[in-house]
Amino acid sequence: MLTFPRGLPTSTRTVDVSVAAPAYNEADTIAAVVTEWREYLERHPSVGEWEIVVCDDGSVDATSAVLAGLSYDCPQLVVVTFEHNRGAGAAIAAAIARTRFDWVVLLDSDGQFPIANLDRVLPRIQAGEAMAFSGARIRKADGLAYRWGSAASGAISNLLHRTRYRDFNSVFKVVHGPLFRALPLEAGGMNCSTEITARVAEIGHQWVEVPIEHRERGSGRRGWRFWRGACDRALFVAYLGYRHWLLRRGVLRTASGPEEAG
Q1: pTM of the model
Q2: At what angle do helices 30-43 and 63-73 cross, to 10 degrees?
Q3: Separation between Cα atoms, residue 122 and residue 107, nearest integer Å
Q4: pLDDT for res 22
Q5: What pLDDT does residue 157 have?
Q6: What is the pLDDT of residues 87-144, one digit of tens each?
Q7: Terminus-to-terminus CA distance in the chain, angstroms?
């Protein structure tokens, strides 16, 4: 349970927020998405200090130029740039590592996860309810094949980790900053969101799921082909499950969280 200074109701405390997001060939939509994030963070009465950290994952379109133009007018926008494409997992990890504030919101730069979903999380942060929140998509806006693949991998992940999360693979995460920045993330592709769910559970924190809106994807494209991605996800879910089994047997040692390490 989080604690706030005495003498001030937690509901009146503002929350300092870092948005972290990867971007790959999102030139057509990134300006509108970042502007939406900025306007929300500037105007929300529960948000105190804020920043937006975007990792440009070696885009070959005008994403880098668009982000540079946005940062000129918005000093709270931090851009991390990879010279070559390294995969969504690496970009997510890099963006998280550059954040500074108490709470980190993980989004995707294609606009599928509206930042207004934070409306359901901020009061729960102010109440000190949990260290990690995850969005459960009410209606997934992906194609049928992707929805089936996500449902299957989520069900297997729940079985292997002895959890019952509705949306194990959701990208939308809101995690206490020190905890998020301490996670040892290994995923190189789009499996990073699945790994984050598993890693936080490994160190003993329960995710609080909140229902969220999920939009259809705008322009840009996925960083991996469907069948290659499905195979990679199956292998990665199996790896995470095997790792969890080794942890339960004491063969592996659970990484210390920031509270334990401090």
Answers
A1: 0.82
A2: 30
A3: 15
A4: 97
A5: 75
A6: 999 999 999 999 999 999 999 999 999 999 999 999 999 999 999 999 998 766 555 5
A7: 17
Paired tokens of 133? 């929140």
Going by their DSSP bridges, the two strands 173-176 and 103-106 should be labelled as: antiparallel
> Given CA atoms 110, 206, 13, 94 in this order, what sign does their dihedral have?
negative
